[in-house]
Design goal:
single chain; mainly alpha
Length: about 210
């Protein structure tokens, strides 16, 4: 081979190698930047989703013993009719100190953290968040009413109220289901990254 031709070919091969190396480096940098951008979007949302679901589970765990067992202790004439209408007569003395305020506090936390999730998005999560928030508020309504009545109770706190608890067990199960549904949708939302799709990166030019 002519020495001059060999030199030219060698230079060409070196140039191609340099170009390929540069292209590979830029591609890896873009991929890394994309991964970092995705992580930056995912982490705050993931934290928001986890905080919201944890608050709902905490409320569920707080209320479950009383809904499952405790309310039966407050039923009138337990040895009477075969069917129980679910009505109980409760007062502040029916619960240990701090139980009712904690139930209200937990329900309020579910509502507050639910708003955070809605703000963080995506919008598709809103119905699942609303379901959990509504159920949490309904489950905590007894204790919110009790707090309101206690403000008008006499000095000894002798305020007693009748409350229909028959729907509470079903609502507790619905809350469990609602949290599971939310977590499934939240997981799917974290896995979606529309910005990485080619169609999302096209310029919206009119035909």
């Amino acid at each position: 081979m002519d020495a001059g031709l060999a030199a030219v070919l060698g230079a060409a091969v070196g140039t191609v190698g340099t170009i390929a190396t540069g292209w590979t480096s830029r591609s890896l940098t873009k991929i890394q930047m994309r991964v970092e951008s995705l992580r930056a979007r995912r982490e705050p949302r993931r934290s928001s989703y986890e905080t919201f679901s944890s608050a709902a589970i905490a409320l569920r765990d707080h209320l479950e013993p009383w809904i499952t067992f405790g309310r039966h202790l407050e039923r009138p004439n337990p040895s009477g009719a075969d069917t129980w209408d679910g009505v109980v007569y409760v007062s502040r003395d029916s619960f240990k100190e701090g139980y009712a305020p904690r139930a209200v506090e937990l329900a309020d936390e579910v509502s507050r953290y639910g708003r955070h999730v809605i703000l963080d998005g995506p919008v598709e999560l809103e119905p699942f968040v609303t379901k959990v928030v509504d159920l949490s508020g309904s489950l905590g309504s007894l204790f919110r009413i009790m707090q309101s009545l206690n403000r008008f109770a006499d000095e000894e706190g002798r305020s007693t109220m009748a409350y229909n608890t028959s729907e509470l067990p079903d609502k507790l199960k619905q809350l469990d289901q609602g949290v599971r549904e939310f977590l499934l949708q939240a997981s799917a939302a974290l896995d979606r990254d529309l910005d990485t799709r080619p169609s999302a990166r096209r310029s919206p030019r009119a035909a």
